[in-house]
Amino acid sequence: MINEKKYEKMTKSEGKKLKKLREIIKEAKIPAKQLDKNLLIATFNIREFGAKKRENFAINALAEICSNFDVIAIQELRSNLGDLKRMLAVMGPYWKVVFNDPAGAPKDKGNDERFAYIYDNRVMRFTGMAAELLISDDFLGTAGVPKTDMSVPWRTPYMVSLRAGTFDFMLLTVHIQWNKKGGIKARTKEIEMITNWVGKRYNDAKLYDPDIFVLGDFNIPGLKSETFKALQQHGLTVPNKLRQFKTNLKKDAHYDQIAYYAENTDCEIGKAGVIDFYPAFFTANMSESEYEKMTYQLSDHMPLWVEFKINETGLDQFIKQ
């Protein structure tokens, strides 16, 4: 599908960096979009997206990355949507977005963050359901009295329903707390709360659609961590092809993940990967401050993506429901 981008103005040097990024994307061998045959899903934590206005080259680069997929779940989107609108303008008129409200104020637990789904409107449609998950841990105490010390996810997970061709599905994105004080234990509890909720809804057939993909920044340090076990303990599966990819820019953690119910969604896992934009915008001799500054232009996470080769028809989904 041809969609000529309308880039924001750049210097010649910045243009060369964008050209290098294109080469990196080409080397990633992301499959072509094929309606009713495959679904290209990505998750991308764009560092403090909207907290401070980004330079033109960064908006162009983010648009270049995101336009390779059918749908992208975005984390760390802030209350100011100016940079998101700029990125969508570069990507072109076919790209649409669904987003929720920010969670908390800056420097509070929610850190003024919201979620967004960016999708190619030539490939899919928003089908009407968008919801924040109201999850609490032991919300009701004795005699049905609400507890004042209950634990809830720091950022409210966000779920939407979409249709690509004849395939109806749902996406649920999260950004699990970092919380140095609580550490792995706190992250594990939050992940377990969310996956337990999804598992119960799935098993009780109360989900809007049985084909659900759970994705986002889980802040999982490694595959042997309790956090990764919590992600899968209620039936969700992370495709084996995704497990090899470390998703932070320093390549020492499996923070970002994409999981689904393999026994329910009739599909084959195609290609998968990350887009490692580091060589285009970072250099080995950068100072720590220069490195940090650039991560606030691009990100300190790489986008994780996977191709689902869908075998289901609309009738298959109707029978399952």
Main beta sheet: 6 strands, mixed
The portion of residues assigned to helices is 25-40%
- Alpha plus pi helix count: 8
Indicate the CATH topology. Answer: Deoxyribonuclease I, Chain A
Total discrete domains: 1
> What's the CATH architecture name?
4-Layer Sandwich
Spans where pLDDT lies below 50 across 5 or more residues: none
**Gyration radius, rounded:** 19 Å
- For the record, what is the CATH homologous superfamily label? Endonuclease/exonuclease/phosphatase
Q: How many beta strands in the DSSP annotation?
A: 11
Look at the structure and give the CATH class: Alpha Beta
- Arithmetic mean of pLDDT: 90
Q: How far apart are the termini?
A: 33 Å
Structural class designation:
alpha+beta
H/E order of the elements? HEHEHEEEEEHEHEEHHEH
Shape: globular
User: Percent of residues in beta strands?
Assistant: 25-35%
Instruction: Tell me the strand order in the biggest sheet.
Output: 3-4-2-1-11-10
Kindly describe this structure:
The chain is α+β, with helices and mostly antiparallel strands and 321 residues long. The protein has one domain (12-320): 4-Layer Sandwich (Deoxyribonuclease I, Chain A), CATH 3.60.10.10. The protein is built from eight helices and eleven strands. The protein has helices spanning 12-27, 56-66, 82-91, 183-203, 226-232, 278-281, 288-295, 314-320, and strands spanning 38-49, 71-78, 95-99, 113-120, 124-132, 158-164, 167-175, 212-217, 256-260, 267-274, 304-310. The strands form two sheets. It has a six-stranded mixed beta sheet with strand order 3-4-2-1-11-10, with helices on one face. It has a five-stranded mixed beta sheet with strand order 5-6-7-8-9, with no helix packed on it. Helix 1 packs parallel to helix 2 (56-66), helix 2 (56-66) crosses helix 3 and helix 4 (183-203) packs parallel to helix 5. The longest helix has 21 residues, at 183-203. The mean pLDDT is 90.
